[in-house]
Specification:
This protein has 18 helices and 10 strands. The chain is of the alpha+beta class and 449 residues long. The chain folds into 2 domains: 233 residues, Jelly Rolls, CATH 2.60.120; 207 residues, Orthogonal Bundle (Hypothetical protein af1432), CATH 1.10.3210. The strands form 2 sheets. It has a 7-stranded antiparallel β-sheet. It is globular. InterPro entries: HD/PDEase_dom (IPR003607), HD_domain (IPR006674), HDIG_dom (IPR006675), OP_Dioxygenase (IPR052567), Phytyl_CoA_dOase-like (IPR008775). It comes from Glonium stellatum. Pfam families: HD, PhyH.
Length: 449
């Protein structure tokens, strides 16, 4: 199919595009039949496809997705690697694309949702690829049945698709309807980067095997960190890891944090030509120029920890945070990251500064017109998702809060930390300052659970 100039420009401006009439009725019927065929495939030690289970709202284990099926299903292989989808992607990417990975999310009635996420760093362990993702609706997809939610909110009918880039914030809720809802997600990388499909699934099968191939007693912590972020798949083993958070020694906690930063910091920072780790280190660098307070500096270093925290905790953290009375509605990476650090034993100031770095943006946009005008296009778009500028009442409440000035200073450090080639201290230089910020709150947390 040929896209219009207006469609291509919309994608460039917004990071996504909805296509309503891409499949004929007969093709939609085939799509629904094929998805059911994959759902019904047997699960045994010899099957190369990869089915994963979750625990639903009734406490039952149910199938939540199947991956790596295109190589073994003629119809899906022809569709997902065929000229219709690849031709559309070529027009948006302005280069040839190859299938990188594919999954069917089943989202059965009563099944859980996925935490807010951005794909920019999802596959850096394979290669730092530039990729596009297609959501192809097998069944109608909306807020009631847990359809994908982006900044503007998207409803799709069967056979319609959404294509989006690596910087689009997205999430989905639980399926609260009485009907199941299937959706296909396919990710494509640039052909010049090579055919990475099979190497990706070889790594995944080793570190995060299908549910029926997981060995009893094996935690698969590295695989959960890479492949399970924010996903209902983690509910099968939920609770297995949460209690361990606050039991590490200070030295172990520091090593854990530093490993997290270095392991998941190599992908590029959202919309900017530097890595996530470089962004975090620059933020801490600018903070240290303003203050010698280790809590302020460490909060700057860890302000985005919720973007790549261990997936073994992501699901339980997001659920527990949502259950708190003060957290009604959106729960973002800043809130989840702050709760994660609190459970690790970080001081209240560190966790509150981390929790506030997104609200501080909303505050500054409300009181400083020049601040809003200075935001990047990506940051202005994410502001919509984050609630927009604060109201007058919210501004007044903010100014009555503790550390509100430090919160604004940290936010401006965050905004400045996008300098290509800036030389700063490496992550190991912060070990001592991180340890100073571990206040023993892990004991308080353990006593509360």
């Amino acid at each position: 199919m040929n896209l219009t100039k207006e469609q291509c420009q919309f994608f460039q401006d917004h990071g996504y595009l909805v296509l309503r009439n891409i499949l004929a009725d007969t093709e939609v019927a085939d799509l629904q039949r094929w998805a059911q065929e994959v759902y019904d495939w047997p699960r045994n030690d010899n099957s190369p496809w990869m089915p994963y289970e979750e625990v639903n709202a009734e406490g039952k284990r149910v199938l939540c997705r199947t991956e790596n099926y295109a190589n073994y299903h003629r119809g899906f292989n022809q569709l997902l690697r065929g000229p219709k989808l690849l031709g559309m992607l070529r027009q948006l990417a302005e280069e040839e694309m190859l299938l990188f990975k594919e999954k069917i999310n089943y989202k059965l009635a009563g099944s859980g949702g996925f935490s807010p996420y951005i794909d920019s760093t999802a596959y850096t362990h394979i290669k730092n690829i530039k990729h596009l993702t297609i959501l192809l609706a097998v069944d109608p997809s909306n807020a009631t049945n847990g359809g994908l939610n982006v900044v503007d909110g998207i409803n799709l009918e069967a056979g319609e698709l959404l294509v989006f880039g690596l910087y689009l914030a997205h999430r989905s809720g639980a399926n609260k309807s009485s009907s199941d809802r299937k959706a296909i997600y396919t990710t494509y990388n640039c052909a010049r980067e090579g055919d990475l499909h099979d190497p990706y699934y070889e790594d995944r099968k080793t570190l995060w095997p299908p549910t029926h191939l997981k060995k009893e007693g094996e935690e698969y912590a590295e695989g959960a960190l890479r492949y399970g972020f924010g996903s209902p798949m983690l509910s099968v083993a939920m609770g297995r890891h949460s209690s361990a958070l606050g039991t590490m020694s200070p030295d172990e906690t520091v090593s854990h944090i530093l490993t997290l930063l270095t392991t998941h910091g190599q992908g590029d920072y959202i919309g900017e030509p530097i890595s996530q780790l470089a962004h975090s280190l620059q933020c801490a660098h600018f903070a240290s120029q303003q203050s010698s307070d280790p809590e302020f500096i460490v909060a700057a270093l860890l302000h985005d920890i919720g973007q790549f925290l261990p997936a073994t905790e992501a699901r339980s953290l997001s659920l527990s945070v949502k259950s708190m009375a003060e957290n009604v509605g959106r729960v973002g990476h800043e809130t989840i990251g702050a709760e994660y650090l609190r459970r690790l034993g970080f001081s209240r100031k560190v966790t509150e500064l981390v929790a506030a770095h997104v609200p501080a943006k909303r505050f500054l946009c409300a009181i400083e017109p020049s601040y809003y005008e200075g935001l990047s296009g990506a940051s202005k778009k994410s502001l919509q998702f984050q609630g927009g500028p604060m109201s007058e009442a919210e501004v007044e409440d903010w100014r009555n809060g503790e550390w509100w000035e430090d919160m604004c200073r940290l936010r401006k450090c965050d905004d400045s930390a996008k300098v290509v080639g800036l030389e700063v201290e490496d992550v190991m230089a912060y070990r001592e300052r991180i340890e100073k910020c571990l206040s023993g709150q892990n004991l308080e947390y353990l006593e509360s659970v």
